[in-house]
Q: What sequence folds into this?
């Protein structure tokens, strides 16, 4: 049993290839059903976003599995020949495949490292796979783990904390001047794209009052509607600046629209309350000398871009931390994967039974002091044959299922039924004797005891 | 007995100051947690030391300058703990704790004996010290404001920039501290004058430190009025409160150099 991933992403394939291979949500059902028809694929999960198309699968043979998933891709889009497709595909097996899944979920493999959408997309894709029973014990556990790893990365590193777009950098700066944006007023001068975007971000962050001024009356009306804003005649906007806490300037003018005098006056009329000016126009529309006025804070495109660059640097630094977390988590999940192999489970099951049997025999013989050698061997034989006959069924089934395809499921079941992962009970003589003590006690109590034994398994499931 | 706790407090506040200061330039948030922990234990020691002093003196009326400075430091650390735990502004430690530490070190160098005087003088001392705590907080907020203002203006988006709170928060804190501190100082001066009248038959004896105290009071009065009427806020308020706290410290030094208790 192997976990594999085959796919392509923004790192290996241009958008022309990605868009052809992408599976729209409406066709995800059909694709998953088809994936399961390829030989040797036991579980499958398909992640398709605009930046990546990947198939995660649990397969019998790794190489064979890779080939089958490649066939699946080639069959998905008939106009792409395998020769065209193969150079863009990457494939990983085992720990590297799991590591890749975790990195994708934690947004370490994203075009913009730390962007939050991928986790939602992964959850949606998982939902579909669950509904179609395309994923099973192994993939379910892996994807759930990937989601929790992503959340851990998000909370324990600063990977998604800082702004990585120019328009958002403006918001971040505003938050260093004003603690409560919802009480602030934004004045939008001009209808430049970047300024509109920044205004939108500010509104998203709680700004309630927006005023707009442009030379072109039509776009002023459109913008006023979009931001539910008041429109100010262009000739008067300098006078209105005193009411604005944040001025976003982005026009096509080739000269300074806002000069030192204008800002000085505004600051005076604002009784020295800080005013935050962002000039996103090239050439600039606000006189750079404004930056020397007390309580006026002016930033231009270069400043915002510098901020973005610093934040990206910060994200890269945090990504290093996240990578180490992923490694650690992969190590843990591999431990669980190992437990799903059939042979160690059979050995563990036999050992468990043997220890219990031996403990019970010792106890019984200690009470029956006067037995002859023959009688003793009868008692021992009785115990052995009960244990062997009881185990016969489970062992045969486990062996059969390991080759028939349901291996992981049955192994997991066996481990839970017999408490093989329960360190406190596993094969220790005193554990066996306490089980006996329960049997001798009040039947109700003994039932409660069994319920308590079941609890750790329930916890694992949750 | 109180001396042991007192010295332990100084050591712990020193640790808190060191970790808080180191936190300013490091990305790691654990430093601020360590600082908080150490200072918290220090505060506990300090509380015990103060209580032990009261038991020792057999009264809550501690009036020596040693005790006044110790109480001032205790209140300031209480403000720090509140801001750090409640408002999660960890940088405050680096600005408030050094003041508390210096004041305790100074207290350690002063005699503990209380000159025989009126029982009610402790009311004057307590109110004046609480007023001073307000001015110290305003001073710290003003300093932080000027630093953040400078970082923004010079476009130095470094670690300190990311840790300092928004400008308008600092300005608001500055205002809140003055608005709280000023009435307390006013009451402190009034109770001081009343005590003096009872003790010596004169409300004011016009010695230099009394004059300084009045100058300080008038200064903060003007600062407060300026903010309310003509917009002395933001950068100007920051400068003024830093100067004002300088005046407060000079008054205290004057009191010590004269070698007698705060009012008499």
A:
């Amino acid at each position: 049993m192997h976990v594999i991933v085959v796919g392509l992403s923004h790192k290996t394939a241009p958008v022309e290839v990605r868009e052809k291979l992408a599976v729209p949500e409406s066709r995800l059902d059909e694709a998953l059903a088809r994936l399961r028809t390829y030989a040797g694929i036991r579980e499958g999960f398909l992640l398709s976003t605009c930046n990546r198309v990947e198939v995660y699968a649990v397969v019998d043979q790794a190489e064979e599995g890779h080939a089958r998933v490649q066939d699946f891709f080639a069959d998905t889009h008939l106009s792409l020949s395998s020769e065209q497709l193969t150079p863009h595909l990457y494939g990983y097996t085992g720990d590297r495949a799991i590591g890749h899944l975790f990195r994708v979920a934690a947004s370490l493999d994203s075009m913009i490292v730390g962007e939050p959408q991928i986790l939602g997309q992964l959850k949606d894709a998982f939902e579909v796979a669950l509904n179609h029973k395309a994923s099973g014990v192994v993939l379910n556990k892996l994807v759930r783990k990937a989601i929790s790893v992503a959340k851990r990365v998000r909370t324990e590193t600063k990977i998604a904390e800082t702004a990585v777009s120019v328009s958002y950098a403006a918001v971040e700066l505003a938050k260093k001047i004003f603690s409560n944006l919802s009480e602030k007023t934004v004045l939008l001068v001009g209808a430049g794209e970047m300024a509109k975007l920044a205004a939108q971000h500010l509104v998203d962050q709680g700004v309630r009052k927006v005023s707009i001024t442009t030379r072109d009356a039509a776009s002023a009306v459109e913008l006023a509607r979009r931001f539910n804003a008041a429109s100010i005649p262009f000739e008067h906007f300098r006078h209105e600046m005193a009411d604005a806490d944040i001025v976003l300037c982005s026009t096509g003018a080739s000269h300074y629209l806002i000069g030192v005098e204008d800002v000085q006056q505004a600051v005076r009329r604002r009784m020295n309350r800080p005013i935050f000016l962002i000039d996103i126009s090239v050439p600039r529309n606000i006189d750079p000398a404004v930056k020397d006025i007390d309580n006026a804070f002016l930033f231009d495109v270069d400043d915002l871009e510098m901020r973005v660059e610093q934040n990206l640097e910060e994200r890269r630094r945090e990504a290093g931390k996240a990578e180490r977390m992923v490694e650690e988590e992969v190590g843990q999940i591999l431990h669980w994967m190992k437990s799903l192999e059939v042979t160690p489970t059979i050995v563990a099951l036999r050992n468990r039974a043997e220890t219990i049997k031996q403990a019970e025999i010792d106890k019984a013989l200690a009470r029956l002091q006067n037995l002859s050698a023959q009688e003793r061997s009868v008692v021992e034989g009785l115990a052995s044959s009960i244990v062997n006959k009881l185990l016969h069924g489970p062992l045969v089934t486990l062996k059969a299922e390991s080759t028939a395809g349901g291996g992981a499921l049955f192994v997991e079941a066996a481990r839970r039924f017999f408490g093989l992962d329960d360190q406190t009970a596993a094969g220790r003589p005193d554990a066996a004797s306490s089980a006996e003590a329960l049997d001798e006690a009040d039947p109700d109590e003994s039932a409660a005891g069994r319920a308590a034994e079941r609890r750790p398994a329930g916890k694992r499931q949750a | 007995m109180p001396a042991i706790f007192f010295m332990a407090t100084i050591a712990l506040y020193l640790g808190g100051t060191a970790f808080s200061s180191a936190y300013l330039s490091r990305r790691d948030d654990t430093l601020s947690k360590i600082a908080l922990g150490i200072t918290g234990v220090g505060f506990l020691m300090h509380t015990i030391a103060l209580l032990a002093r009261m038991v020792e003196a057999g009264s809550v009326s501690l009036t020596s300058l040693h005790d006044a400075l110790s109480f001032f430091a205790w209140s300031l650390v209480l403000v720090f703990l509140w801001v750090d735990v409640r408002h999660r502004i960890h940088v405050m430690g680096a600005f408030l704790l050094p003041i508390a530490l210096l004041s305790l070190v100074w207290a350690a160098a002063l005699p503990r004996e209380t000159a025989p005087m009126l029982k009610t003088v402790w009311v004057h001392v307590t109110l004046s010290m609480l007023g001073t705590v307000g001015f110290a907080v305003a001073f710290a907020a003003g300093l932080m404001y000027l630093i953040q203002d400078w970082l923004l203006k010079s476009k130095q988006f470094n670690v300190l920039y990311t840790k300092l709170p928004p400008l308008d928060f600092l300005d608001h804190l500055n205002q809140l501290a003055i608005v709280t501190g000023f009435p307390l100082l006013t009451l402190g001066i009034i109770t001081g004058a009343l005590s003096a009248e009872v003790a010596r038959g004169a409300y004011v004896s016009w010695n230099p430190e009394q004059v300084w105290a009045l100058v300080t009071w008038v200064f903060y009065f003007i600062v407060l009025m300026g903010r309310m009427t003509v917009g002395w806020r933001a950068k100007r308020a920051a400068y003024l409160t830093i100067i004002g706290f300088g005046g407060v410290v000079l008054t205290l030094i004057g009191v010590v150099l004269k070698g007698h208790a705060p009012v008499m």
